[in-house]
Amino acid sequence: MAATRRPGRNHLFVPGPTNIPDRVQRAMIVPSEDHRSVDFPTLTKPLFEETKAVFGSTEGTIFLFPASGTGIWESALTNTLHRGDTVLTSRFGQFSHLWIDMAQRLGLNVIVQEEEWGTGANPQRIEEALRADTNHEIKAVMTVHNETATGVTSDIGAVRKAIDAAGHPALLFVDGVSSIGSLPFYADEWKVDCAIAGSQKGLMLPAGLGVICVSQKALKAAESSSGPNDRLAHVYFDWADHQKQNGAGYFPYTPALPLLYGLREALACLREEGLENVYHRHAVLAEATRQAVAAWGLKTCAKEAKWNSDTVTAILVPEGIDAAAIIKHAFVRYNLALGAGLSQVAGKVFRIGHVGDLNELSLLGAIAGAEMAMLDNGVKVQPGSGVAAASSYLRENPLAKS
Amino acid sequence: MAATRRPGRNHLFVPGPTNIPDRVQRAMIVPSEDHRSVDFPTLTKPLFEETKAVFGSTEGTIFLFPASGTGIWESALTNTLHRGDTVLTSRFGQFSHLWIDMAQRLGLNVIVQEEEWGTGANPQRIEEALRADTNHEIKAVMTVHNETATGVTSDIGAVRKAIDAAGHPALLFVDGVSSIGSLPFYADEWKVDCAIAGSQKGLMLPAGLGVICVSQKALKAAESSSGPNDRLAHVYFDWADHQKQNGAGYFPYTPALPLLYGLREALACLREEGLENVYHRHAVLAEATRQAVAAWGLKTCAKEAKWNSDTVTAILVPEGIDAAAIIKHAFVRYNLALGAGLSQVAGKVFRIGHVGDLNELSLLGAIAGAEMAMLDNGVKVQPGSGVAAASSYLRENPLAKS
Amino acid sequence: MAATRRPGRNHLFVPGPTNIPDRVQRAMIVPSEDHRSVDFPTLTKPLFEETKAVFGSTEGTIFLFPASGTGIWESALTNTLHRGDTVLTSRFGQFSHLWIDMAQRLGLNVIVQEEEWGTGANPQRIEEALRADTNHEIKAVMTVHNETATGVTSDIGAVRKAIDAAGHPALLFVDGVSSIGSLPFYADEWKVDCAIAGSQKGLMLPAGLGVICVSQKALKAAESSSGPNDRLAHVYFDWADHQKQNGAGYFPYTPALPLLYGLREALACLREEGLENVYHRHAVLAEATRQAVAAWGLKTCAKEAKWNSDTVTAILVPEGIDAAAIIKHAFVRYNLALGAGLSQVAGKVFRIGHVGDLNELSLLGAIAGAEMAMLDNGVKVQPGSGVAAASSYLRENPLAKS
Amino acid sequence: MAATRRPGRNHLFVPGPTNIPDRVQRAMIVPSEDHRSVDFPTLTKPLFEETKAVFGSTEGTIFLFPASGTGIWESALTNTLHRGDTVLTSRFGQFSHLWIDMAQRLGLNVIVQEEEWGTGANPQRIEEALRADTNHEIKAVMTVHNETATGVTSDIGAVRKAIDAAGHPALLFVDGVSSIGSLPFYADEWKVDCAIAGSQKGLMLPAGLGVICVSQKALKAAESSSGPNDRLAHVYFDWADHQKQNGAGYFPYTPALPLLYGLREALACLREEGLENVYHRHAVLAEATRQAVAAWGLKTCAKEAKWNSDTVTAILVPEGIDAAAIIKHAFVRYNLALGAGLSQVAGKVFRIGHVGDLNELSLLGAIAGAEMAMLDNGVKVQPGSGVAAASSYLRENPLAKS
């Protein structure tokens, strides 16, 4: 985009959008076609089935929308809830905040449990709140699985246990935009009612395809929410319209065709690598990143190891240093895109995304670049220390589990 | 998609999605990038300006959503109107019907003027209805510019005159999904408050980018609709969130990147050909198609010449012939995708789209194919007659005006 | 390429380069890679086997050169022959002429049998010449299978019979550049010693990959020609260098990588359609073209039906008409690329290529375009007559045999 | 290519083929077109002019062949020389060896000056040999500018001075396959008569386009070599055939179309970065690599700093270590393609190519990977030391000169 050509590739280490594998890129180069043709379902019908795997589901129903993940947040809320309904949720970062903001603006009554940034959803507090809700006013629990702003992963299994322990019928909505396809996710086992994914993270596609995996319980809630007066107005994201068409392989309106072809190929990539290997790889690359951070003598935004996200690491810069300056310098000088600190942690952290289609040497290049950008901006780290620590770890820990 | 390879290209003559020019296809093959980078606005900022040209606007504001045109319908309604507001509209085909259905499901009070399929919006009736609405209960007039189901184009200039003649303050919303970028469209001159376009028609892109051109008056209405209680709940399609970010070249959530690059190239294509030439070309190809229909001895769905759409021609098959069988046969036997008849005209018409990036010989191939498919299905047309008539017209009428 | 954008696609009906199927186009979009890597042979080794099918061979050896077909002509001659060797050949068009010119310039003694343009190789004369060559001075018979300049196909099976009938040991070299992959070709059955193909015709790739299928007999001749003094100097096109590397899946120098990936996909296309269906399709499209020519009241350059080429038809324009003007007009006005008349037939013919990845409606578009260009240039043909005749034939004759 | 998917990109650090910039990759995705059309010269004619810049020439003539660099070696020799002519050259690596082998097999009398591997052409010895050749038997001096096998660059300016000092009329042929477009090259200033380039190195394209820049003196020699009897037989690589067509923008046979479009874009890339910046960037990345080698305590194959190549560094592994094992391990375990040792240095060196479209972090990733592969194979280097040294150098030395 720059006026003068910058040589070589851009090193993309934001926590999404992620790198698109060549074969997925190729798969999306398709001519236009009639999405009502007799051939079209041979593309689409398998997608509705095969996409479930990345959600850890066999029982769910997949809906595919031409939309970003934000739209799918809205789809979950508007299909299942009524105006004025109460939902329970935790705020511990920018994305959990934005989802709360949406819920409020849609007219829901949102009970917010504030958690310290750098931690995640607190199952115990959730259980307490649900136990206290003896009238079952709370219709849904909303949880962000992986808070990209702080590099924190919440324990959805524990949230489920909390709901069950409270014996509460609330639906469970999980934002898995930056986790699904990268971190272990078990929608069926965790009884997630709406699991929300975007295309531009673990699915290794451009943004523009919103994916949701919906439980039978949520589908039922959607039916009962269809009364005209108090429902949350929506048509574009309506599940029922899609259900009518999806069974035969069609959509109620024109789908984003290249992304459907891309999804098919991305799912094949994940299948060929093996989802367990994919999860393991993310864990290994994340730990290598954290080894580098430790070698630099810096701290992550995540308060404890249990909160560590395996898709993104938020790194606290020393007092007196402007993380934003490091990020800008990394981009302009070294063609390295790091994630910025947002809101509460703006200027205090930079983030290294290690999500999607990535391997050791790409990550080591980014670690080297982050180190150089820090050094250039006055952070006293030992040159080469980050790569030394990360590479030693990576030598010992292959990316593939099997 | 078929199990066995079918040689040669698919001849795509549905009225959208349309053929993607090679250079636009190429432009969309981009690596992922950080949509918050310092470079990103060099891509996006010109788009907000340059896109206005295809709407015939210099004063409007462009919003770009990762969505289909259906979503943009919703964006127009939910940003400007309140629950229970009254809107006036006309129904004369499947797409005008679907928009009405959406408005009703969103909780609006919709006054529907039924017009015969094959005709379009009736300015006189609109004027009458507005004159009768002395309390100005009607907040907006919704009109589909080009009804693809029947191949009919309504006269938006006349609708505007009707509103003005009635001295009514209603907003004017126009669905230009299958007209904008192909048919003359003058949002400023016609004072269209929301002009709605999709990417997959005249913009020659895949579906997935919804575009709306909003007037100052509509922006103002959006502000006043932002009260919490009676507004039509929406966040994803909210203009205000976009306005906050668009000025600096950013978006409130991850945009559909390839489509933005594609849009830049598609606009360049339209500019290089010249919009007046683009409109003229569509008129010439459409008239050539109608010449073929006449030579076949058949009639179009459009009742009078004044209703003729220059982006799609709906052709009535003789009594006793199943148009659906012709369409299926054309696809399976000749790799030709024709548009189906929908709803009221299902089985009675097939449609030839002549919209987007197209020239004479492609159209003549499709006309030949439609003729063959008709002959194979018992329609008695003179072999070669359609191409003879269309090609004679095309020899006399160059595609470029200048 | 033009300064102002021309809408729609270019209709490519030269007899090569031919249209590249989308999936082949996609397959060629590959990053650079190390052509000495341990993975590389998984791409290349199957190519050496699978390419034989289009030559009708199981016993031959395939060599793949980064070169045009012209280079492969040179490869055949320089690997097997010595300076001053005598070869026998026929001239009946521009391409047979150019191959003769090459042989002469390489220092061979070329016995040329002149045949009327519009006919092809004469097996009887060949037999006579070989019988007369009792000393076996003639080392090779060179024949152009499909002379694209005139739209004539020679009968290679008959040439083989002529050689056998004469009991002559000469090698048989066949230029199959515009036939292999499109017309029936049986290298083993016909005992073709060097069968020469380019990538840009029946293989549906861009130019740049030269392919040769070499018999055991020719390989043996190549060994004996390797003496230093009188051999035809060559290194780039040397088979022995390739043989040393190809077995393990490598090349003596850097190969044209995208074309190798493209070849793999193109072979898959041909396999999926079925070679017999591919040949049948070319025959049907060719006959449809000839039906159009007859309906126009024009004649082909091929003197008799037995000479008709099924990959290209050369059409004689009436006296007083300049074929070159028609061709230029077709290109400029209708975006239709027709083949020009060359040498003896320059200005007298235009050529419609019907080779490669093509189906009915594309051809009918071209026939319509040729007709319009003729009419615009004063050729009195009946409007629509070509398409009427061709489409009637095509309705009766499906492209797929099975 | 592997049966199981390997995540992330392949890190390509062989000294060619090199990484293809995204925009060049895009530019090559073109439909087939008629290479005899009236539009075609608008693509080709500028190429013949603009390509000269990378050769440092305004006076030369460019020829473009569908071929690898090996073919262009042959083109230089066969167009200008006669059978039995004497040429003078130096051997100091695998590629200088192969060119000598070709010259001998073509029937030339080759005087070889053996130089130690790790050094290059010796201008003093060349001058002596030329002075001794009082009869001017030597028709040409052949020099490999950049010997990729050993990472050695010869001083072509000094070779020119040697020839001039000897007052000898020999032609000067320079293999610039791995230097042109990456290292300073001044064909006019150095009076190089044949400067030979391939597409897959500094030109950042796939292999398959051979480029030669020919002086007026060499063109004259080519004319005089065209006598029929003693010339080196050649047609495919004949300059005169090309000269006849190139002037009007055409070729004597079908060109490799995608590569021509790619060349246009690659030249634009080089122009936008600025050739001086391109050369500077290669120097900086090369020196960073050598800093890493020094930090590892290892030696390069180049004997003295003056021989250092700025496009490839050949690194000697310690006694008892098999460099081939390191290379294989780097590829299989870390998806890193390093260059192998060839011939005399097989098993003794591995090579890091730093040529083409490359920036700091990509190189640092490769240095990290090479280090890991060495450590895994028993080479005792300090973890992180290579990246520490290289990154410190890179922080001080920006890639762009201006």
TrEMBL record, chains A, B, C, D:
Location of the Aminotransferase class V domain: 76-341
- Cofactor(s) recorded in Swiss-Prot or TrEMBL: pyridoxal 5'-phosphate
Q: Which residues carry this modification: N6-(pyridoxal phosphate)lysine?
A: K201
Is Metal-binding among the key words of this record?
no
Specify which residues bind substrate according to the UniProt entry for this protein: R351
Catalytic activity entry: glyoxylate + L-serine = 3-hydroxypyruvate + glycine
Which PANTHER family does the protein's record reference? ALANINE--GLYOXYLATE AMINOTRANSFERASE 1, AMINOTRANSFERASE CLASS V
Q: Which family does the record claim for this protein?
A: Belongs to the class-V pyridoxal-phosphate-dependent aminotransferase family.
Give the protein name, as stated in the record.
Serine--glyoxylate aminotransferase
